[in-house]
């Protein structure tokens, strides 16, 4: 099933770059054709939504196809996907900080973690901590009905069980 979805995506991408592959030497230059192709909207094969593509994305697909064929137009799974964990003491402290300081930005929370020597600003990375905070409803919502910062209402901030 996943292979079919990947092949659908590769064929869709091929359809978009096809005019660039089969152009005549007397046609307009590649950069001009990229600009024209990127100005169109395309229906994404997986969810049916209209998408616009940057000329750079299309250029990369063209490069990938020229160097690897149709298979190179499939998405590859990130090699580091799922390998970054937030240690339990750090995660618990983030939950406690959010409960104690619901109006703090995540940046302030991270600064506090550094001051408490629970995080060395390197491992885990800042982006990992932001992703963890987003996935666990620890982000500060920028607006509220009263115009004051408040926690997200979707779920409550609580440590994982």
Automatic annotation (TrEMBL):
Domain of life of the organism encoding this protein: Bacteria
Entries under Pfam families matching the protein: HTH_32
InterPro entries: Homeodomain-like_sf
Protein name in UniProt: Helix-turn-helix domain-containing protein
């Amino acid at each position: 099933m996943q292979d079919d979805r990947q092949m659908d995506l590769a064929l869709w991408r091929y359809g978009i770059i096809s005019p660039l592959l089969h152009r005549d030497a007397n046609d307009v230059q590649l950069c001009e054709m990229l600009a024209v192709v990127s100005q169109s909207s395309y229906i994404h094969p997986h969810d049916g939504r209209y998408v616009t593509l940057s000329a750079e994305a299309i250029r990369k697909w063209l490069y990938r196809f020229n160097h690897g064929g149709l298979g190179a137009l499939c998405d590859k799974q990130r090699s580091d996907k799922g390998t970054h964990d937030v240690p339990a003491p750090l995660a618990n402290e983030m939950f406690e900080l959010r409960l104690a300081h619901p109006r703090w930005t995540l940046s302030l929370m991270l600064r506090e973690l550094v001051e408490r020597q629970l995080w060395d600003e390197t491992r885990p990375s800042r982006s990992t901590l932001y992703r963890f905070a987003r996935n666990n409803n620890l982000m500060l919502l920028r607006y509220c009905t009263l115009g004051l910062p408040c926690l997200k209402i979707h779920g409550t901030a609580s440590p994982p069980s």
